[in-house]
Design brief:
Blueprint: E1 5-13, E2 16-24, E3 29-34, E4 37-46, E5 51-56, E6 59-68, E7 71-76, E8 79-87, H1 88-97, E9 106-108, E10 113-118, E11 125-126, E12 131-137, E13 140-145, E14 150-155, E15 162-163, E16 168-174
Antiparallel strand pairs: 1-2, 1-8, 2-3, 3-4, 4-5, 5-6, 6-7, 7-8, 9-16, 10-12, 10-15, 11-14, 12-13, 14-16
């Protein structure tokens, strides 16, 4: 059996986050999972890595991909999609810092746990890297920090709440 490499990303499309997993083995076959959908496709690059021919079963799709940093425009014959694609590890680190998806000031729980302190309220001014929530998980206190300087727009949790990983804790608007 040939070795495969697994890549995990989070795509941000119209403000919504979508997990993506891609397994690449020897040859052109790629196994993918995009949100709840999964499948296998053959992918062949062409034209200096900006165009691809993807086939799944007897269907073929020609794609052109334009990239600027983390932003991708994916174009097919009758379709265009713009998204931000971030490696899962960097996305999770942004969550730890409270940066949310793309610095919009969305602060999420980075793991399941219990809220033991909320140190801000709507209308409060916060600075980047300021502690805003303390989450107890695995008998450890984890300080969650603001990802940007701004004003607290809304707080979605209170002391004692149990939260899941990825739960929305608070929102911060740019200063």
């Amino acid at each position: 059996m040939s070795a495969t490499t697994t890549y995990r990303f989070v795509a941000i499309v119209d403000g919504k986050e979508l997990p993506i997993q891609v397994e690449v083995g020897a040859g052109s076959q790629v196994r993918y999972r995009i949100g709840p959908n999964e499948g296998v496709a053959d992918v062949h690059p062409a034209q200096d890595g900006t165009a691809y021919l993807m086939s799944r079963g007897n269907k073929q799709l020609a794609l052109r991909v334009a990239r600027t940093g983390d932003n991708f425009d994916i174009m097919a014959r009758d379709y265009q999609l713009g998204c931000r694609l971030v490696p899962e590890s960097r996305y999770l680190m942004d969550q730890l810092r409270g940066g949310g998806s793309g610095g919009e000031g969305i602060v999420r729980a980075h793991m399941p746990g219990r809220i033991i302190a909320v140190s801000v309220a709507p209308g409060d001014t916060v600075t980047a890297d300021q502690g805003v929530v303390v989450l107890e998980a695995m008998k450890m206190e984890n300080e969650i920090k603001a990802g940007l300087t701004g004003v607290v727009k809304s707080v979605h949790v209170e002391t004692g709440d149990a939260v899941e990983s990825g739960a929305l804790l608070l929102e911060i608007s740019d200063a």
